[in-house]
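Lecture 7 notes. Example A: sequence first, then its structure tokens.
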Amino acid sequence: MFRLLRQSSVPLGNFSFAGVRSYASAKLFDKILIANRGEIACRVMRTCEKMGIKTVAIYSEPDATAVHTRMADEAHCVGPAASSESYLNVPKILEVIKKTGAQAVHPGYGFLSENANFVKALDEIGVTFIGPRTKAIHAMGDKIESKKLAEQAGVSVIPGFLGEVNSDEEVIKIANEIGYPVMLKASAGGGGKGMRIAWNDKEALEGFKLSKQEARASFGDDRMLIEKFIDNPRHIEIQILADGKGNTVYLNERECSIQRRNQKVVEEAPSPFITPEVREAMGKQAVALSNAVEYRSAGTVEMLVDSQRNFYFLEMNTRLQVEHPITEYITGVDIVEHMIRVAAGESLQIQQKDVQLKGWAIESRVYAEDPYRNFLPSTGTLTTYEEPDTSSGDVRVDSGIAEGSEISMFYDPMISKLCSYGEDRAKAIATMRRALDTYRIAGVQHNIPFLRSVMDNRRFEEGNLSTKFIEEEYPEGFEGYKFDTTQTESLVCAAAVIRYESTRRANSVSQQLRSLSEDIPSVSSMVVNVLGKDYDVEFEEVDVDSYGQAKISFFNTSHIVNYEWEFGEHTIDLQVDSNVVSVQILNETHDGFDVQYCGSKLNVKAQTAVQQTLSRFMPEIAEIDYTNFLMSPMPGKIISIDVNVGDSVTAGQQLAVMEAMKMQNALRAESDSVIKSIEVKPGDNVSVDAVIIEFESK
């Protein structure tokens, strides 16, 4: 399918090149095909448009109306939903390249970005790959080989077994020789897939099995290696740019320690832990490794850093990294532009002395997932989608979706990369808080409540990070935002303002008042319920001639509140004394409002005393008991059923394995039970909350 797309109705997104340097030259390519989808495809297209280069999008059948498909100058379908039949369908993509006359291909990240065979196929038809050469991809894509090369280049490496592991017996033998804990990881892996930490023989065997299966499914290569797991490290990476002509620079570091299941969640640049001396040492080693493989293009050398600032090579990603925007913020370098220029044969146009480090940037990865259910993926249609304001330049949103977009089970559930910038870390955090508070998403579950909680976490504020941050700060999982007294009282004030303004709007519409300024009582009493607690509130307009000022009193305290809100607006901004807050209004209920505050969805009630008394007689809806069922925690595919009807199982026993978003997840019994029935079979696709197994009643 072919479509001309430069439609005026398609926005380029909330992204600005303010502060990012460009370099004048003749046009490098006439047309570039982006072999990817979603936000990264849109990101590359923005730089191409800036450089005057036409773009070609590819898409799978479900992505026919996706933003990246509509954003390109032309677009072509390359197959059905499954990535293996579309975005990884090399013959079909080569066909599109020939048909469109694209002179170069930018792979983004993931999919074919580190596929040496794809690069070779492009070489054979005279099309430029915007990335490294096959030599570097081969060398760095194999974790066993890359570790050997790093050692030869004088890069610090993690102690471990430099070879592939092929059997259960080898796993146990090598793991015990290295000493637990160990990391089992796929040699061809990346993105957290095919990785497991083992603390004993049992976990090593189980992790070996699951990691091999994930690696085979994700990369078509199930070779495994084992290395010492450095407990409680920081994950810090160095961004490099090289032209393959001996010119290589490092663009400082990124701290990526806040991770879940080895997937990065929050990143920042620079790191609050790294000194200038360590930064220089890490940068020089990253450059040495890059030169050792004659690297060309953008790449990232990932390191683990211990508490004494000793650093060890982890891996090199031979592609554009997901979190590259925060490096662009602090350096002013458009990394994608340099990738294109280098691929066209230009020499690198910056030297190490030109690389600046100005200000601080933070990236929050916004995912369609449920943080209250162990971050399980969420699918559905975005019924509401409104990104934060980016006009000031201190907020950047890299996204590839719009209101009405579908989040499906076939691809990564990322909604966007939300970035904030400030002259220092504290200001970058404050800007991120505001951006999260004003980000409107409905139709799917999302992780904004968790991201907002991280921004207010004292340990995060102090920069005291490690890769165990999430498990240590949220040992029982995410249980919701913890509101302090000031935040709670600010929410009480917001609820009072919403109720007061809504009431006088209703009175006007019903003609009980002839206008909004006539005979409005300047003092109003109400009962506000926030977080399960009642507050007897008195709302008093400070100056009846000045809209948006009030004194709100409860519990023998008074707060001066200034606010901006018109009935029907989705967000109310208030200054409660000296505290500035934003509250999203999701919908109105019979006795109050559903709101989103500090990222969390809450119901607040604001009623007269009589209404509050009568509401106590409303019947409560009984909750359904699902304890006798194993239900699918996410949409996915059943890989195996490990029990039979009639089996007695114990708490913690593995019952089934399912795959979702290319990750395999073991489903376990929560208590001792007997299997009554099995409702699915291996190969079945299941939706969230679908019944997998029923247990006998206790």
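Example B, a different protein, same format:
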Amino acid sequence: MLKKVSTLILRRGIKTSHSTWSNKDLFFKVHPSVSQALAENKPVVALESTIITHGMPYPHNLSTANEVEAIVQSEGATPATVGVIQGKIHVGLSPGDLEHLAQCRNALKVSRRDLPYVISKGLSGGTTVSATMIAAHRVGIPVFVTGGIGGVHRDGHNSLDISADLTELGRTPIAVVSAGIKSILDIGRTLEFLETQGVCVATYGMTKSFPAFFSPLSGFSSAYHVCNPSEAAGLIASSLSLGLQNGVLIAVPIPEEHAAAGQHLEEAIQAAVTEASSKCVIGKDVTPFILQKVNELTQGKSLQANLQNEIHRLTLESVFYLIQFGQTNPGSVCQSFGGVGRNIADSLSRLGEAPLFISATGCDANSDAVFNYCKHMNTSGVARLEGHNTATYCVVISESGELSFGLGDMDIHQHITENYVSQFEKQVSSAALVCLDGNIPVSTINYICSLAKKHNINVWYEPTDVERASKPFLTDAWKYLSYSSPNMAELCNMNKTLGIATPDVLPTSLSEILHVAVSLSRPLLEHLHCLVVTLGSNGVLLCGEHSADSVNLQLRKQKKKRQLCAVHYPALNVSPEETVNVSGAGDSFAGALIAGIIQGKDTDNCVRMGLLAAKMSLASPHPISPMLSVDSVDPTKLKQMNWPTPSFFWIDKGVLL
């Protein structure tokens, strides 16, 4: 269930926020499997750890944690169990970390309130719902699963003992899937408190009956219910898309066959509550005390229900089909051939170059069509894999030519492995320039960058999208890139991954956009030769080495002392009536710009080639216009062209090595 939840949320482009975590964060440690999955836009499911440290005895706690993670992994998603170990918030735990928390006798129960103290003292603990939500939101995980959330304690209207889970749901935009509210709590007052916090609560099933963790029935109702995966999808999509800055709670009842006898459990709970009161157990110690006592009174039946709750929510059928249509929509349909790497290789091939295109496809009808269309390209580096699907992207384009939404089957990209690409090491090592797109695995990017370091190769990184932009910056691989062509959002994510502060909101005026783009480019130019920041309708900003009153775009032979500058080129005018499709303009620009660089043209002519190619793409239903040719983008043959005047800026007067 959660794999499909996360996958479809990612495909829709719905996020809680852009991740504010970086690999230099002093307080967070993100497991490599989690950071790689996030960078590759793969589904990640957050899991809490108080079930390990305080919810079950050893070894039941460890076996349950392992089983839950195994279920997540078996469905193709990456589990991200959150815990605090020796003063660091871990997002994603190794087997050793899980074992440590499962056996740690002095582990604390860590909520929002406790995080500063536990971190400052270097202590360990299991994260509650609130602390797990904070960590998940911080690193960009939008879906979190837990057993039962905290709530208003019995007699809470007098004691004011109210779980921080509730206020966290009111201020952190995460989709929380749970078995409801713990049956030891005052469920009615908890639901009222959630309403006050603005949290949308819905039961997953045919009724609004709100589950009581151990039992499908609590005697209370949710405000809403979602009957099927599509309805659940719509609810979560709306909640995360509206920018309301609060979570949504989906309550999933435990299956009837695993629910403990309601009356028997209720009697045990009442007895446990009475004993807790008589022994003056208060605050956050109440829940684990009552759970343990209920487990004793029911001879383990509540523990079994707890286990089943943890497992059931992860084995439900698919939940969230984020796009649902109730009718056929009229429109025109055409097939074109895309993919960032393919587009750039296509562009270069039409402009007189003969790049080797290294990729992978399935062995299916779609790959037959691709190879037939790409006969003008050198596709000898493309593997055709039996039993796999060729990457396919279904996109709906609005009347204005803008992307409305897309659905992609891109798993084949994970087979463009380091091992496969190493077959072409000789060609890569001797190339004038190697272009990488962000769809390939992190390990393959790192491998190419290691060759760049060894053989002094110029490498161009095309980020593809905001999340994939961070891939080379997860390690020192980025230091061996020569060029990159991010947009503003991608440039921000590159900086964030390096631990560099970025604006919360991107500016809208051109002068402010250029100022921010220059500021964010400066740290990357410590190692990169040139940044080509694409600004959409505002044109393009080149940042790099100063040469002849412009930015030196020519291939770098070795790193040297240099002064930095930036040049802004406005976009060419394209009317709305001329715009057919915007999806390939950036790739067309990059391909033509690279062609100009390889051909040794000056900076103005390189950029003008790119702008002309982008304009042709906008007017074509294909990402790369079939009409693209050397003559069509030759600025010297357009004598009547009124080129916009570029603007020059010094980045700083310092000299970089």
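Note on Example B: The mean pLDDT is 85. The longest strand covers residues 647-656.
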